[in-house]
Amino acid sequence: MDLEKLKYPIGKFQYTEPATAEQIKMWISQIEALPEKLIATVHQLTEAQLDTPYRPQGWTVRQVIHHIADSHANACIRFPLALTEDNPVIKPYQEELWAELEFQKKLPISNSLQLIKLLHLRWVVLLNTMTEKDFARTYKHPQYGKEYSLTEALGLYAWHSNHHLAHITNLIDRNFDL
Question: Does residue 161 or residue 16 have the better pLDDT?
Answer without folding.
Answer: 161
